[in-house]
Design brief:
The complex is a heterodimer of chains A (about 375) and B (about 375). Chain A has about 375 residues and is α/β, with parallel strands linked by helices. Helices cover about 35% and strands about 20% of the residues of chain A. Chain B starts with a helix and ends with a helix. Classes of the chains: A alpha/beta (about 375), B alpha/beta (about 375).
């Protein structure tokens, strides 16, 4: 892609979260702006695990956090069960956040070191109820047990008395205790050893089934993402490259960037040939001044004048497989419905075409909002 | 391993054409809580131009091992014993004056985080030339030419311009290339690369590993690649040593290790990693429990509390080094994977309902029981 477009979005009635034209920008001083996320659209079906992959700085964490308004995005909409979260503020947003929880990368620093584990997990209940203490304790115990921690041993201990994997289990218990619908997992296993990583991945799979959760799973390890995800979205420099069903993405990558990622991912198999010949420019351009057109073109072997001038739009290349590339590695099945219109907007000198497109798409999202579930 | 065993094993472990010979190396750290046995009796050899991968989880002693050989463990609470000879010369206990003739010149090291291993207030060019001038005694301009040549050989674009950059002006991958250039500057015969790509993105990691491989071949340099990622070492090493609780539990030529696993820990490690070649939602075979306490390690085999095949003998007696089909394949286990004894042990444990065995059999760590055991372990 590094492109825009919404061909990969599904019917609004099938999805629990629908993000459209999400833009997140941060001031970088002296009037400059970091274009962390530039016009991302993605949706999540109930009970689905969406994997977000990409190199550091591609905006995967920013996208996921903007979904739960942490912080609210610069532009775009986040539709959660028919409510646009970006339009909510104060008490309304606070109420709805109970359904949206997050697990962070570093399990030890995300737990308050001065509080007992029982209190850490009970905290959400003290805010939201039930306020009956006996019931609280019961819920906390059930939750700790569900994540594989013995509540009788753990309740009175502090976070530092547990290993990284156990702390991550406690963080998961804290996120689950309010029975949320969606959990954002921001690199939850990156800080863990491989043997513990497998425990946590299995645990997340079990809990997802048991509590009918919808997960957004962020990781830089492609094998981890494939293992847990139903659908995977590949991001590059604040843009979406490719969205696909997980197995299909790894077997038939359609975007040159996805292929680069998959082929670079070290496979624990000594009989797999390692490609030592291709020298790819591995330097990420600055998100303050991203390349025009397709943002990946500076590193792409197929890049031409078209890629420099026009930003590619999402196009269908297979069943639930979409790619934003002018020269995809798979034949295009269906042109994007928005492609013609959006292409018209594209100005070769305009580097922030995504933000420009947002007003044009406004009517579109309004009609969708009138479509209650 | 007991002393008599190690003497017997010695002749089979160590060959003639060895660049580095490590014998019964131990590094212990004295802490108020007790003696941490970070490296606890490691023996291996490395021939010229060969690559050894050292794999293990955090706390397995892989980093301390490389730092011990390099004499980089500072502080008066460090207790080192055993020997590490490089071209017949003992490295352990060398004075810092003598070490200056070894570091960089004979043995070099690339660290995990290039941001902290490079000096942030010195231009990268000077960090490369400093080394060349000190060791090779060349003039300033000659050193500059050599340095630019080196930066080019590690594929830094516009090497002349980069020469005058500070580390913070370079990306993570470029910084790691600079530290590799510094390590290679004096043409060392042995390179320790300690998690050289852990802080980098996969595409950059791929490039850096390719670079290390190319440089190693061109210079006929031996390399020790320390990592927690079996994927990193799988296609890029001649041999792999798997470490657990300060010891090498299995060591074999790379392909043998993957195709003929003998130690239960290696087997468990390989099973627990997600692979891109598997379908999504493939159940991972997690290893029950967590790495051992290095101050009070378990009796007998250190892996026994987590091992699905563990028998009474494993819990009391330390297994000696055994050999596979060739002398190059070594492992320390009473019930090696793939033997009838191993199969019996498995069935016995399954019948007894041992938690870690049931966990592997059913594909789910029986969470509560294992965690409870772990937590109580943590108390003492």
């Amino acid at each position: 892609m590094a492109g825009s477009g919404k061909a990969h979005l599904r019917e609004a009635s099938d999805t629990i979260i629908r993000v459209e034209d999400l833009v997140v920008e941060f001031p970088a001083g002296r009037g400059r702006v970091v274009h962390a996320v530039s016009g991302i659209s993605i949706d999540l079906a109930q009970g689905e695990t969406l994997g977000l992959v990409g190199e550091s700085g591609c905006g995967k964490s920013t996208t996921a956090k903007a979904m739960i308004q942490l912080p609210p995005p610069t532009a775009g909409s986040v539709d959660f069960n028919g409510v646009d979260l970006t339009k909510l503020a104060g008490e309304d947003l606070r109420q709805i956040r109970t359904d949206l929880q997050i697990i962070f990368q570093d399990p030890i620093s995300s737990l308050n070191p001065r509080r007992k584990v029982g209190d850490v997990v009970a905290e959400p209940l003290r805010v939201w109820g039930p306020h009956d203490e006996v019931e609280q304790v019961e819920r906390v115990d059930n939750m700790l047990e569900a994540v594989g921690i013995d509540p009788d041993v753990a309740r009175g201990k502090h976070a530092h008395e547990f290993s990284g994997g156990q702390c991550q289990r406690i963080s998961i218990a804290r996120a689950l205790v309010l029975e949320p619908q969606v959990i954002i997992c921001d690199e939850p296993v990156s800080a863990l050893d491989v043997s513990v990583q497998a425990q946590i991945l299995n645990l997340l799979e079990d809990l997802k089934e048991r509590y009918e959760l919808t997960l957004v799973f962020i990781a830089h390890d492609l094998a981890v993402v494939k293992n847990i995800s139903d659908r995977v979205a590949v991001m590059y420099l604040g843009k979406m490259c490719e969205v696909s069903e997980a197995n299909e993405l790894y077997e038939n990558p359609a975007h040159p960037y996805t292929r680069l990622l998959v082929s670079s991912s070290p496979e624990p198999d000594p009989f797999v040939e390692i490609d030592e010949t291709t020298e790819v420019n591995s330097e990420l351009p600055s998100p303050i001044d991203p390349p025009s057109g397709c943002r990946f073109r500076t590193r792409c072997e197929f890049a031409d004048e078209l890629c420099e001038r026009v930003e590619p739009q999402m196009r269908k290349v297979g069943d639930d497989h979409f790619v934003a590339c002018h020269h995809p590695l798979l034949p295009v099945i269906e042109e994007a419905p928005f492609a013609a219109a959006d292409g018209g907007h594209d100005d070769p000198t305009d580097r922030t075409s995504a933000t420009d497109l947002a007003p044009g798409d406004g009517d579109e999202s309004q009609t969708k909002e009138g479509n209650p579930q | 391993m007991t002393t008599t065993d190690s003497v017997v094993a010695d002749s089979r472990i160590h060959g003639d054409d060895d660049l580095l010979v490590v014998k019964d190396l131990k590094t212990h750290f004295a802490l108020p809580a007790g003696m941490v046995k970070a490296v606890d009796g490691v023996s291996f050899n490395l021939a010229r131009g060969r690559t050894l991968g050292v794999v293990g989880e955090s706390g397995s002693g892989k980093t301390v091992l490389s730092r011990t050989v390099m004499n980089l463990n500072l502080g008066n609470n460090v207790h080192t014993s055993g020997s590490a000879t490089f071209e017949g010369r003992e490295l352990i206990g060398l004075r810092s004056k003598e070490l200056q003739g070894v570091w960089g010149l004979e043995i070099a090291m690339v660290f995990q985080d290039p941001m902290t291993s490079l000096n942030p207030v010195v231009k990268v060019g000077r960090q490369v030339t400093e080394h060349i001038r000190k060791h090779l005694g060349v003039s300033k301009s000659e050193a500059r030419d050599t340095a630019i040549e080196l930066l080019r050989s590690v594929r830094i674009p516009e090497a002349e311009a980069r020469f005058n950059n500070y580390p913070h002006e370079l990306s993570g991958g470029m910084r790691q290339r600079v530290s590799i250039a510094i390590a290679l500057a004096c043409g060392p015969k042995l390179l320790f690369a300690d998690e050289p790509t852990t802080a980098l993105d996969v595409t950059v990691q791929h490039q850096i590993l390719n670079l290390l491989g190319q440089q190693r071949r061109e210079r006929n340099m031996a390399m020790v690649l320390v990592t927690h990622d079996l994927g990193v070492v799988a296609g890029r090493t001649d041999e792999i040593a798997v470490m657990y609780a300060g010891r090498i539990v299995e060591k074999a030529p790379t392909k043998t290790l993957f195709s003929d696993v003998r130690h239960p820990y290696t087997e468990a490690l390989l099973r627990s990693i997600p692979k891109t070649s598997e379908r999504n939602h493939t159940r991972l075979a997690a290893i029950a429990g967590r790495p051992p306490d290095l101050i009070n390690p378990p009796e007998g085999c250190k892996f026994s509390p987590r091992c699905p095949y563990a028998q009474d003998r494993c819990r009391t007696e330390e297994p000696p080094v055994q050999f596979g089909e060739s002398n190059e394949h070594q492992f320390s286990c009473w019930y090696p994977v793939g033997t009838p004894e191993n199969k019996e042990a498995w069935e016995r444990n399954l019948a007894l309902g041992l938690p870690q065995t049931v966990a592997v059999a059913t594909g789910s760590v029986s969470e509560v029981s294992v965690s409870a055991a772990e937590t109580t372990d943590g108390d003492d």
